[in-house]
Fold:
Amino acid sequence: MEQTDILIAGGGPVGLTVALELARFGLRVTLVNEGAETALHPKANAINARTMEHFRRHGIGSTLRKAALPGDHPTDICYVTRLTGRELARLHMPSSTDAVAEAQAGTSVYDCAEPPHRCSQIYLEAILRDAAVSRPGVEVRFGHTLESFSTEGDGVVGVVRDLDEDSTYEVAAAHMVGADGGRGVVRRQLGIRYLGDGGVVRKMMGGQMLATLFDVPGPKDWLTINPAWQYWVIAADLRALLVTVDGADKFVMLTRIPDGTDPDDIDDHALLARAAGMPVEAKILLRMPWMAGHELLAESFGGDRVWLVGDAAHLFTPTGGLGMNTGVDDAVNLAWKLAGDVQGWGGPDLMASYEADRRPIGARNLAFARGFAESIGNFDVDPSIEADTEAGAAERARLSAHLTRHVHREMLIPGIALGVRYENSPLVTDDGSPTVPDDAGTYVPSARPGHRAPHVWLADGAALCDRFADGFTLLRTNTDIDAGPMISAARSVGLPLELLDVEEDVVAQRYVAALVLIFPDGHIAWRGDACPVDARAVIDRARGAA
Structure:
């Protein structure tokens, strides 16, 4: 029987992120994935700012920015009657290159080191897999699938099938992570139900959908709208979303399948022609029916050494791009706790804090996504929308106003990505400071315990987050303050902690404390202007041993 520290079922972006995060702590990891290759279909196309920060920590931020859209390609979102028709509304968004420049200049609405990036899952998964296989102790096996598992003593044993050899073998681990999606083995064997609504029917982003990946080399006479990243077709007879995958010839189109229609009966070329308003000489690469309208949250995120992340823990409709990004945040929160348990510095309550932290965030983000889906999916369109008449002009003006409001609500969401907080976490020591509103469209940097450690550009041009340790970080903004008791308390229980001295006014002003204890996931555990009287109590609370 093979032995490892952590067995991961599922090699999508979330499972691969778990592996990368565990590698930070030197754990042995075995990841199995049923598919023989990384994603061939661009399921996810947006990486939010917080996820980009996580990827930056693993040294792949710049690699991702070179993938998918060219650096100078617009990332606008526009709404049109047809792809050769009239434009109804547009949100101008910076290209990747401009977004980075804005972040460095401090003029971006995303107050972070890594602004959002538009990159298809086709490219993202391949980059993550390459990064994972390069890490010592990480074994990545595509074409291997988890068939079943059992908890035995102080661990779990998974039965894995090698699909090429059609043979099974066993892997024993201290913990197992189910990153195998909504229909995966792990959640189903645990008997954990989804709670909430599934397959809510709407005119768009609700009910049965079709994703069509296609390639169109040569002239783009079928796409006369000014360049964008997303083109939403709003017509009386069709709702569709066209996303440019590579900024050149490859696109994916999402359409609502009419009720009662078999996806196999849909003519993809005819569908593209309706969206464009003219025939499109396209090569269909892949097509995938899928169900939108989900707002499903697992009743439990696991336990007894088996844990759920990503789609196994929550199923989203992709409005707001929150599904994969929420899953990556799950992975980062869970991984350091797994390390603490395996390496012995975690307390008895550490693993239970994963669900306490992440399940409320899953519910929060699902509610945001549902609101966006209702806004884009429930309005009517009058047939006059394309007519050169007063009625047509009035209908276009009406929809333009609605869509302009909607696109700002859905696409400018720094508060969702950067405003995640674990204020009620059992690991966090409350300092009594005022709470900060949790608003999708607004991010207010706060060093209140539980919040993401605020971003700061340092005098040498580096980002403060780049200085954080793989384990815990004790940030000190005033070296006159004695940090010895906190360091000694951490060492006494084997907690990995590094002291980070940064005496710059901007850091002291933003963190409003001389000492700040930061979790390995970049959230704040405690802060104060001097070491606490009982430093061991603060350390014990942060490691789940309070």
The mean pLDDT is 96. DSSP finds 14 helices and 26 strands in the chain. Residues 240 and 255 are 4 Å apart (CA to CA). The first strand starts at residue 2 and ends at 3.
